[in-house]
Design a protein that fits this description.
Layout: H1 5-23, H2 30-35, E1 37-48, E2 58-67, E3 71-80, E4 83-96, H3 107-114
Antiparallel strand pairs: 1-4, 2-3, 3-4
Protein backbone atom coordinates (compact mmCIF):
# COMPACT_ATOMS: atom_id res chain seq x y z
CA UNK A 1 0.00 0.00 0.00
CA UNK A 2 1.21 3.50 -0.84
CA UNK A 3 2.72 5.12 2.26
CA UNK A 4 0.58 8.29 2.12
CA UNK A 5 -2.64 6.25 2.49
CA UNK A 6 -1.79 5.72 6.16
CA UNK A 7 -2.14 9.49 6.69
CA UNK A 8 -5.64 9.32 5.18
CA UNK A 9 -6.66 6.43 7.44
CA UNK A 10 -5.30 8.27 10.49
CA UNK A 11 -7.19 11.46 9.53
CA UNK A 12 -10.49 9.57 9.36
CA UNK A 13 -9.74 7.94 12.72
CA UNK A 14 -9.00 11.35 14.31
CA UNK A 15 -12.36 12.65 13.08
CA UNK A 16 -14.15 9.66 14.62
CA UNK A 17 -12.11 10.08 17.80
CA UNK A 18 -13.29 13.71 18.16
CA UNK A 19 -16.88 12.57 17.56
CA UNK A 20 -16.56 9.93 20.27
CA UNK A 21 -15.14 12.40 22.78
CA UNK A 22 -17.88 14.93 21.94
CA UNK A 23 -20.58 12.29 22.31
CA UNK A 24 -19.55 11.75 25.93
CA UNK A 25 -21.02 15.21 26.56
CA UNK A 26 -23.91 14.89 24.10
CA UNK A 27 -22.19 17.43 21.85
CA UNK A 28 -21.87 14.97 18.91
CA UNK A 29 -20.82 16.11 15.43
CA UNK A 30 -21.86 19.79 15.62
CA UNK A 31 -19.02 20.23 18.16
CA UNK A 32 -16.76 21.88 15.64
CA UNK A 33 -19.38 23.78 13.65
CA UNK A 34 -21.45 25.03 16.62
CA UNK A 35 -18.42 26.15 18.58
CA UNK A 36 -16.55 27.22 15.45
CA UNK A 37 -13.53 25.20 16.49
CA UNK A 38 -11.28 23.22 14.20
CA UNK A 39 -8.06 21.29 14.57
CA UNK A 40 -5.02 21.82 12.39
CA UNK A 41 -2.14 19.39 12.28
CA UNK A 42 1.14 21.00 13.30
CA UNK A 43 3.32 17.94 12.89
CA UNK A 44 3.16 14.25 12.08
CA UNK A 45 5.87 11.67 12.62
CA UNK A 46 5.23 8.36 10.86
CA UNK A 47 7.11 5.13 11.43
CA UNK A 48 6.40 2.18 9.15
CA UNK A 49 6.83 -1.27 10.68
CA UNK A 50 5.34 -3.79 8.26
CA UNK A 51 3.68 -3.68 4.82
CA UNK A 52 -0.04 -3.84 4.22
CA UNK A 53 -1.70 -4.77 0.96
CA UNK A 54 -4.83 -4.17 -1.09
CA UNK A 55 -7.88 -5.70 0.63
CA UNK A 56 -6.17 -5.87 4.04
CA UNK A 57 -8.52 -4.91 6.86
CA UNK A 58 -6.77 -2.22 8.91
CA UNK A 59 -7.67 -0.88 12.35
CA UNK A 60 -6.54 2.47 13.75
CA UNK A 61 -6.23 2.89 17.52
CA UNK A 62 -5.90 6.46 18.81
CA UNK A 63 -4.83 7.66 22.23
CA UNK A 64 -3.80 11.00 23.72
CA UNK A 65 -0.16 11.20 24.80
CA UNK A 66 -0.01 14.89 25.67
CA UNK A 67 -2.68 17.44 26.45
CA UNK A 68 -1.88 21.15 26.55
CA UNK A 69 -4.03 24.25 26.75
CA UNK A 70 -4.03 24.81 22.98
CA UNK A 71 -3.03 21.45 21.52
CA UNK A 72 -3.19 17.69 21.75
CA UNK A 73 -0.68 15.03 20.78
CA UNK A 74 -2.04 11.67 19.67
CA UNK A 75 -0.45 8.32 19.10
CA UNK A 76 -2.22 6.50 16.29
CA UNK A 77 -1.31 2.88 15.68
CA UNK A 78 -2.46 1.14 12.52
CA UNK A 79 -2.89 -2.62 12.73
CA UNK A 80 -3.44 -5.47 10.30
CA UNK A 81 -4.84 -8.19 12.55
CA UNK A 82 -2.49 -8.07 15.56
CA UNK A 83 0.47 -6.72 13.57
CA UNK A 84 1.28 -3.03 13.97
CA UNK A 85 2.03 -1.78 10.45
CA UNK A 86 2.51 1.94 11.21
CA UNK A 87 2.66 4.37 14.11
CA UNK A 88 1.87 8.07 13.83
CA UNK A 89 2.56 10.75 16.42
CA UNK A 90 0.30 13.69 15.57
CA UNK A 91 0.31 17.14 17.17
CA UNK A 92 -2.78 19.24 16.45
CA UNK A 93 -3.82 22.69 17.62
CA UNK A 94 -7.33 24.02 18.21
CA UNK A 95 -8.16 27.02 16.02
CA UNK A 96 -11.07 29.39 15.59
CA UNK A 97 -12.81 28.74 12.27
CA UNK A 98 -13.53 32.48 12.05
CA UNK A 99 -10.00 33.82 12.55
CA UNK A 100 -7.86 30.69 12.09
CA UNK A 101 -5.94 31.69 15.19
CA UNK A 102 -4.99 29.22 17.89
CA UNK A 103 -7.50 29.06 20.76
CA UNK A 104 -7.63 27.12 24.04
CA UNK A 105 -9.39 23.78 24.17
CA UNK A 106 -12.73 23.97 25.96
CA UNK A 107 -12.50 22.62 29.51
CA UNK A 108 -15.14 19.88 29.02
CA UNK A 109 -13.28 18.70 25.91
CA UNK A 110 -9.89 18.66 27.67
CA UNK A 111 -11.38 16.71 30.57
CA UNK A 112 -12.90 14.17 28.19
CA UNK A 113 -9.61 13.82 26.30
CA UNK A 114 -7.92 13.09 29.62
CA UNK A 115 -9.86 9.82 29.76
CA UNK A 116 -7.90 8.68 26.68
CA UNK A 117 -4.45 9.55 28.03
CA UNK A 118 -1.59 7.10 27.75
CA UNK A 119 2.05 7.64 28.74
CA UNK A 120 3.97 9.88 26.35
CA UNK A 121 6.02 8.12 23.69
CA UNK A 122 9.70 7.85 24.59
Amino acid sequence: MYHARYLDFAEHARTEFVREVASLHNKETPLLQANEVGFVVKSIHVEYHSPSFLDDFLTVKSSVTQLKRFSITLRQSIFRDEIEVATLIVRAAAVSLKTYKVIPLESWFSESLGEYMTPKEQ
